[in-house]
Amino acid sequence: MNVQTWTYIIVGITFALYIGIAIWSRAGSTKDFYVAGGGVSPLANGLATAADWMSAASFLGMAGIISFTGYDGSVYLMGWTGGYVLLALLLAPYLRKFGKFTVPDFIGDRYYSNLARTVAVICAVIVSFTYVAGQMRGVGLVFSRFLEVEVNAGVLIGMVIVLFYAVLGGMKGITYTQVAQYCVLIFAFMVPAIFISIQMTGNPIPQLGFGADLVGEEISLLDKLDGLSKDLGFSQYTNGSKPKIDVFFITAALMVGTAGLPHVIVRFFTVPKVKDARKSAGYALLFIAILYTTAPAVAVFARTNLIETVSEHPYKEMPDWFSKWEKTGLIEFEDKNEDGKIQYVADKETNELTVDRDIMVLANPEIANLPNWVIALVAAGGLAAALSTAAGLLLVISTSISHDLVKKQLRPNISDKGELVIARLSAVGAVCIAGYFGINPPDFVAATVALAFGLAAASFFPAIVLGIFSKRMNKQGAISGMLVGILLMLFYMTKFKFGWFGGGTENDYFLGISPEGFGTVAMLANFIVAILVSSFYKAPPQDIQELVEEIRIPSGAKDAVSH
Amino acid sequence: MAVSDKAKKYWKTNLRYLSILLAIWFLVSYGFGILLKEQLDTIKLGGFKLGFWFAQQGSIIVFVLLIFIYVYLMNRLDKKYGFNE
């Protein structure tokens, strides 16, 4: 059977599975819709968090970026895993003890202020939309290549599926579909990785093959790739080219951003007890680490394979996959010196090949000549990753509107049923806006996501950490900190990404820190402003200080409630 | 012990655990993977340069261990102070 038939079959089966789960786990109340009834086991929550977390960027984009940037790509590996340590140690157990539905809930109550709540809602919505845009683009990419439909039609199909289970099932539907999606995506990621690892190094464990010698050669894979990169004028794979300060700041921004992402935090509201929250953060990172320790191996395999297949080889002899990807415009070849061979080099003047980094994971099994069903499986995995994350984000957006705005501020007397209707309607609205971003995508997948992290790091993380670890922190401090953090981040991002406020180039970066790493600076600014401003105003009221003492003790966590 | 006394002691021990675990967290990623990378790269671990290995493999493995160690420590602490359920 050809790739396309296989893809229709495998993608069809997985979609049927997601829809089946959605029908089985319909939400009956707002509690079901917001926190899956609060009875999710730590293991299931760990699986769901891993799928929620690993987006199109992790699955499709990350190995590709590492493949092209080598050591510099480590920022994503450390950044997107190290945040879970912060989450497990500094946030998840306390927020679970606090026992409400959303992050703005915590901010609003802890800082006894609807203004703080509104600022948090705005931050949550900006962060989630920035992030969801990348997911929809991932869905479109997979559809256009494997099912040969228009990118836009692909986005629309993705929207309908997400709409179906997010609107019907809310958090409950999302949780159980995410468990299934984790299984699909990890299987889809590991199978080709194991195949290729055996092919290239004879070792079935990619994490070990990564550091092994090549089959039939006396040289380790990494040394070989370092040599190849150097010969072609690229910087050595294991060294990278970003300044150290930027690597440091980007890693920190991604870590802190991870811990501050509302769609990840809310997952910890769904387990029964405080100790379950800690444990499920551990499970989540374990499941994430399986993919994250494999991805850099895949990156090295793919890079070596690509160079060996194309470099100095005649264009006419290129395998099938080359022309297929050429059709999508994601691989481009221009024979500048008209020798009929492909010169793939670092020098822009003489380089003849451009490869979109987003396609590396999708193209990898084809480059390595794996069977068709494996290629189809990767397509299904990419869709699982994008859909699971999109659903989690859409839930945050709809909850922010129905719960944090309507219920908590505009119409406090609304019935549970009424709130549920509004939650569902806002989910529909959010899907439509996300679809718009998917059809008009900004930048490539991982970069948009990286910016969402900067925003999350700059806004939520300090407000939540201070709210737990400092009894003295008051609303004036927290609100001004969040505002300074997010405005600073937005300013820097729009200045260098969209050319607003006079624009600028890399030479104008503050201390050489790119917009991706600026979240760390904005986060520090948030902390400093919050602490300074809070010292000018009086300590929070007694009942708030008691609340802080209360959330520090794990026993007696009640079910998540709205009041 | 009064409840508030217990809570204070519990919190203090928790903060001590946090600072030790976070110090390790910082060391393996920002330390070994970024700041000291060049120095560690002179050491080879199989086919890996050690600094590069920490940046792309080792730090992640340590992160997972850190969380499970924290879970273990806190469960023990909860029991000691009777905050377990």
Task: Describe this protein's structure.
The complex is a heterodimer of chains A (563) and B (85). By secondary structure, chain A is an all-alpha fold. Chain A has 21 helices and 2 strands. Chain A has one domain (29-551): Up-down Bundle (Sodium/glucose cotransporter), CATH 1.20.1730.10. A two-stranded antiparallel sheet of chain A has the order 1-2. In chain A, helix 8 (151-201) crosses helix 13 (274-310) and helix 15 (360-367) packs antiparallel against helix 16. The N and C termini of chain A lie far apart (57 Å). The model of chain A has no long low-confidence stretch (mean pLDDT 87). Chain B has 85 residues and is mainly alpha-helical. Chain B has one domain (20-80). Helix content of chain B is 81%, strand content 5%. Chain B contains 3 helices and 2 strands; from the N terminus they run ααββα. Chain B has helices at residues 3-35, 37-41, 50-80; strands at 44-45, 48-49. In chain B, strands 1-2 form a two-stranded antiparallel ribbon. In chain B, strand 1 and strand 2 form a beta hairpin. In chain B, helix 1 packs antiparallel against helix 3 (50-80). Chains A and B meet through helix 5, helix 10, helix 11 and helix 13 of A and helix 1, strand 2 and helix 3 of B. Chain B: It holds the Pfam family DUF4212. Chain B: InterPro entries: Na_symporter_ssu. Chain B: This is DUF4212 domain-containing protein.
* Order of neighbouring strands in the sheet with most strands of chain A: 1-2
Q: Could you give a short account of the major beta sheet of chain A?
A: 2 strands, antiparallel
The percent range for strand residues of chain B is: under 5%
Measured as a percent range, the helix fraction of chain B is over 70%
The count of strands of chain A amounts to 2
User: Which geometry of chain B do the CA atoms define?
Assistant: elongated
Count, helices of chain A: 21
Q: Count the domains of chain B.
A: 1
What is the CATH topology assignment of chain A? Answer: Sodium/glucose cotransporter
Helix/strand order of chain A, N-terminal first:
HHHHHHHHHHHHHHEEHHHHHHH
Biggest interface and its residues per chain?
A: A-B, 49 and 43 residues
Q: Strand order within the widest sheet of chain B?
A: 1-2
In the residues of chain A, how many domains can be counted? 1
